[in-house]
Amino acid sequence: MLRPKILPTIALTAGLVVTGAGAATAHECYIAPRSDKGDAGADRSANWSTLHLEELYRTAHLFLGTAPLTDAQVAEALVLTEARGIPTSVTLFERFTIPRSAAELERMSAKSSDGKGVDHFFAAYGDAIIGIVFEVLAEDAPA
Fold first, then answer.
1. Other CB atoms closer than 10 Å to residue 63's CB: what's the count?
2. Model pTM?
3. Is 100 strand, coil or helix?
4. How far is 115 from 8, CA to CA, in rounded Å?
5. CA neighbours within 13 Å on the CB side: how many for 88?
6. What's the DSSP call for residue 72?
7. Would you give the distance in Å from CA 122 to the centre of its chain?
8. Considering only 14-28, 40-54, 110-124, which range has the smallest mean pLDDT?
């Protein structure tokens, strides 16, 4: 079951990723080296929310203008996600944008997806996630 606050996050994030809105996607930051236990603790805070990529794949058609993925396609997308080393869930900070300005983001951009400390999930994985959606759709397209 989708948590009520995750739908707006999915909508905003997917829309921003698709349009390539650089600094705006910085809102979706996470602690790259944090453990599953740490993520579970953070998720109990109002400042953090866990996004399961299954939810994102099930709603991707709303933002990408594609057909909805079937259950089998969602399952395949998750297999591809794991195979490519992309987390299938991530606990994201949602209280405010980090960094707080585009200028600050530009100074930090090389570090925004380096796997150390605070990273920006969609800067690191957005293109790959969108690619996976189109890949599973293409696999089932009529020849």
1. 20
2. 0.66
3. coil
4. 26
5. 11
6. H
7. 5
8. 14-28
